[in-house]
Specification:
It is built from 14 helices and two strands, in the order αααββααααααααααα. By secondary structure, it is an all-alpha fold. A two-stranded antiparallel ribbon has the order 1-2. The radius of gyration is 19 Å and the shape is globular. 50% of the residues are buried.
Length: 366
């Protein structure tokens, strides 16, 4: 029964996320209250928020879906693995200067800043766990996709700060000039985001991987269905809490042009990310399954981590969350469209090659 309910919720997850966004816009109070709850840790005076806890739980679940054997198989082709991780990490430095130039004539510089900062945060995040499951639906190389997700996650304490610093220079006063002041981004890249990536992204993922290895494949089969059910509720609650600040303000103080701009630019950047992944995979002469995996790895980023980070560092500018929330929804729509396209043998989601038979990856959808 649990398996059936989980499958049904996964099928309608995008619609449920839209409902959560709607609730966040109409009834933001509970979400803002949850976002404001903090727990002071005795070590170092650090604090933990509810969104951080929800994000960590989601990534523990993603780690539970990783098989060590899959990682071993993917390491046999290290160049493909390195290409996927590098492509995802360098994506903001390629796309955001172009976006900044295109928005140069937009009449409100503050809106352009909010849009660029939000997109910078989401594109700097590691590959989303959903890249493995969406790629599997499209007939991708599942072990390679899982290894890309894990590799990108493990390296995120290094790649995320470097990505923010480099992109900040490209779109700051010394570059396109779209960002007038990059001091907060410099502070985030210099101190906050590396620690955040390590504590909130890397450690929970590694804990999940270790738990799966300790439990073994026989026990994990019994544990995963209820864990998945809880994780889906966790994902929906995290969507609501992350959206409460930005969408609550959007409803109480409507700014239609900013809302349309966030949707339009996020959608364009999302589509370009997938197209760049497809082009790169063909340039590298990847076979069908590897091409699919590289495309999804380049196109999908951990938007939940970006939203949590934005809520902590840019709480004074909730509009920064608008492009992140837009990207979160749109990358799933684009991924579903790409996964539903006919494969090379003419059947949707089935491509030639031995990796098509790989066992499913129980990765997070975020």
């Amino acid at each position: 029964m649990i398996v059936g309910v989980v499958a049904l919720v996964q099928r309608w997850l995008l619609g449920m996320m839209l409902v959560c966004y709607l609730l966040a816009g109409v009834f933001p109070g509970p979400g803002e209250w949850l976002r404001g709850l903090t727990l002071r840790l005795p070590a170092g005076g650090a604090s933990v928020t509810v969104p951080m806890v929800l994000l960590a739980l989601m990534l523990v679940n993603a780690g539970l879906g990783v098989r060590i054997a899959d990682l071993g198989r993917a390491l046999r082709r290290p160049l493909r693995l390195a290409l996927g991780i590098a492509a995802n990490a360098l994506l903001p430095t390629v796309l955001l200067p172009v976006v900044a130039l295109c928005l140069h004539s937009w009449p409100d510089p503050a809106e352009v800043e909010a849009l660029l900062v939000g997109l910078m945060l989401v594109l700097a995040m590691p590959i989303a766990g959903g890249a493995a499951s969406w790629g599997q639906n499209a007939g991708g190389n599942v072990p390679l996709a899982v290894a890309m997700v894990v590799g990108s996650t493990v390296l995120s304490p290094l790649t995320v700060p470097l990505g923010l610093q480099l992109t900040g220079r490209l779109v700051g006063p010394g570059g396109t000039g779209a960002l007038d002041d990059t001091a907060r981004l410099d502070g985030l890249a210099g101190a906050g985001v590396g620690v955040f990536a390590l504590a909130s992204v890397v450690l929970p993922s590694l804990i999940g991987i270790a738990l799966r290895a300790l439990l073994g494949e026989h026990r994990i089969v019994r544990v995963l269905p209820p864990v998945k059910a809880v994780n889906l509720l966790n994902i929906l609650l995290l969507c609501y809490v992350n959206a409460a600040g930005a969408l609550g303000r959007a409803v109480s103080h409507p700014d239609p042009d900013l809302f349309v701009l966030a949707l339009g630019v996020s959608g364009a950047v999302c589509c370009l990310s997938f197209l760049l992944g497809r082009w790169m995979s063909r340039w590298a002469r990847c076979d069908g399954p590897d091409e699919v995996s590289l495309t999804f790895a380049t196109g999908m980023n951990n938007s939940s981590a970006a939203a949590v980070l934005a809520a902590v560092w840019f709480s004074h500018r909730p509009e920064v969350l608008l492009p992140i929330l837009s990207y979160s929804l749109l990358q799933k729509i684009v991924a579903g469209t790409v996964a539903g396209r006919p494969g090379r043998d003419g059947r949707s989601g089935e491509r030639s090659g031995p990796t098509t038979r790989a066992r499913p990856a129980e990765a997070s959808t975020k």
